[in-house]
Each structure stands twice: as C-alpha cells, then as structure tokens.
C-alpha cells in the first residue's frame, strides 16, 4: 500500500490488489516505529495518523535473574539523536492501511481493488508481464481475469503465491519457537507505555499495552500448536495464569482455542529479489520474526527505496532487471543486519525453550545495562529507526493534511 501511494504520487499508474473485502485482521504487524512516523509526517499524513486510536510504547523491560525486571530499552532517549517521535506506536494495522488507501484514492494514478486475489503470474517473451486474479462479484460468485503491467510487485507475505510461482530460491534460518496471540482486557490504571516480557520454564509471554486491552504473545517451542489445541482452553488458561499471575483473574475471557491465533514464525531471505518484470518486497523477500517488531518498519523502508529508485524508469517505460537489482542492493545490508540481530535474540531464547529452563536474558547483559543506562538507546535505535532509514522522495512529499 505504501509503495502504491508513493508511485501514484510520482504519476505512475498503480493497481493494488487485496484479496479480502477489508483489512480487518488481528495482530497483523501493529507496531509503527519512529522511522515510519517520520515518513508519515513527510507524506503529509502525520496529523491523520495522530487521530487514529493508538497507544505508545516508551520502554522495554525484561525479567532479571533476581525475580525482578530490568529496563533494557528506553525510546525516550532517541530524542537526543534528533528522532522526532521517540516512541513506538501500537495501532490496528487496518486503520493504518485504511489511511494509506484513502490517501491513495486522492491520486488519479492509484487504483485499489478489494476482494481481488492474485493467483499466478502472466509471462511473455521470458519476463513477467502481469498477474492472473480471482475476484468476488458481490453475488457470491467469482470471476477470473488478467492484469498486464510493466512491473509486478509481490507484497503477499511470507507465504507469497507470486514468489512461489517465480521460482526464486529462499534461504531459511532456524527458528526454535512459534507465537500464539490473544487479547486480555486492560483495566484503568494498569501499565501503559511499557512492553514487558515475562519468563517461565520453557516458554515466555510478551505483554503489549494496547489502547483498551493487552495484546499477549505466548511464545513456546515450534511445532506444538496441535498439542496446545488438543489439551484444550482450560489447560491453556491455567498455563497463562501461571506465566502471568497478575492477569489470572481474566484468563476466563478466552472462551476457546479459536481465540488464540497461531503464528508460524519464519526467518528467511530470497537470494535474488527479482526476475524480469517481478520484484519481491517485505516478507515476500525476507520473512521476519516478530521479535523486536521490526518487520513492518523494514518492509516500509523497502517500499520507499523501491519507489525512489523505480519511479523514473517506470515513468519512462524502461524498467528492467538492472533497476530491480538496485533495490535489493540498497536494502540488502539493512535486511541482513536486522535478521542477524533477530538471530542473536533467538539464540537467547533457543536454549531455555528447548531445555525447559527459565527463559531470560544473560546476566552479564542485564548487569551492563544496569551499570551503563545509556546502553538502553542501542536496542531501541536499532529497532525503532533501523540500520538504514529511508527518506520520502521529493515527488511524494506533501504539506500536512488535516485529520
């Protein structure tokens, strides 16, 4: 959606396909980072975004070896480095997507087709020339068709249909855990602005404060989703209550295991992000783990880089493989470093999850942060700003639009 908006502002005709009738999807990359907030400001959308229902995260705390907690990340410190929004925002992704869609509709070159699913690639003369799609008619039936394009961009996620059809090869990295997401009510006066991780034996939970509830990420060894569901909601409630005793009085809000959404965590990267006429971006190019919530920011930066590099060739009708390769060349270092950081964080969790011991960060790490609080800025900068933040291209910048 971001790439479509940026290219449309450059005068490139864009069609965005969304297979659902709306963007409603719980726990779908709801973190918006300082770098993305700066981008929205540059696009003139900052005031509109500020009007959305949202919450802020200003600190990250982890359990220490003494049974307490230690702050290891302070977004407020980012203000010292010129970051205009020194916090991470939690906002329903459907609200953000609706905002971008509305902004796109203001551009004559932008077209959004809902309930239209790309099913395969169209090829001619050794290159991708568009997609085949399946679209709802509004009467319960579907029609099929084709859209031809100078460039097709696969932004269809970690299970990308278009990537699979392209034959591009993926390198997979080992991930020892999966995540199960669910909400619990948040009561007046309970914590705000702090993302916490609570450790148990062989599992842990991430607590994200949303505007009116807590978003809970239950993290446990990969491959046990079937076991969790076979045990039933009663056993799962007891497990959550043991792990998060402060919320034990509301685990009854989980009526069935249908309320618990399973995420098969993947970490991978394409060796090449393109073939002639096709470019993969976001999770389709490099699936990210939810650890650190870095995926949305990284994908957004991909979109900005792609728009900056490709708007000119697309306007001239000359976009080719060399142009597409430049996108990967520009974004690959930031992707490699972000995934390396996630793999380091995974290593911290892998041993405890596999052996059933207490999950928590190494004592020397906490001791160093306790002794030198300035170190708290390192993880928050890498997560919130990234390794190579992209600036909005001049052709896409606009004066602030009223909310």
In short:
The chain has about 400 residues and is of the alpha+beta class. It contains 11 helices and 20 strands.
Q: Quickly give the CATH architecture of the largest domain.
A: 3-Layer(bba) Sandwich
Count helical runs.
11
How large a portion of the residues is in β-strands, by DSSP E? 25-35%
Question: How far is it from the N-terminal to the C-terminal residue, by CA?
Answer: 19 Å
Unreliable residue runs: none
Total domain count: 2
How would you state the average pLDDT, rounded? 88
Care to count the β-strands?
A: 20
Largest sheet strand order: 5-4-14-15-16-13-17
Q: According to CATH, what is the class of the largest domain?
A: Alpha Beta
- As a whole number of angstroms, the C-alpha radius of gyration is 22 Å
* CATH H-level homologous superfamily name of the largest domain: FAD/NAD(P)-binding domain
Given helix and strand content, the structural type is alpha+beta
Biggest sheet statistics: 7 strands, mixed
Basic shape:
globular
Query: What's the CATH topology name of the largest domain?
Result: FAD/NAD(P)-binding domain
Your description of this structure?
- The longest helix is centred in the C-terminal third of the chain and has 35 residues, at 321-355.
- The protein folds into two domains: 2-55 and 83-163 and 268-342 and 372-396, FAD/NAD(P)-binding domain (3-Layer(bba) Sandwich), CATH 3.50.50; 177-221 and 223-263.
- With 403 residues, it is of the alpha+beta class.
- 33% of the residues lie in helices and 25% in strands.
- The protein is built from eleven helices and 20 strands.
- It has a seven-stranded mixed beta sheet with strand order 5-4-14-15-16-13-17. A three-stranded antiparallel beta sheet has the order 2-6-3.
- The chain has helices at 2-9, 34-42, 46-50, 93-105, 161-166, 225-231, 233-243, 295-316, 321-355, 363-371, 377-384, and strands spanning 14-18, 31-32, 55-57, 59-63, 69-74, 88-90, 110-114, 116-124, 127-136, 142-148, 152-154, 170-172, 177-185, 194-199, 204-209, 213-221, 261-263, 268-270, 274-275, 278-280.
- Helix 1 packs parallel to helix 4, helix 1 (2-9) packs parallel to helix 8 and helix 8 runs antiparallel to helix 9 (321-355).
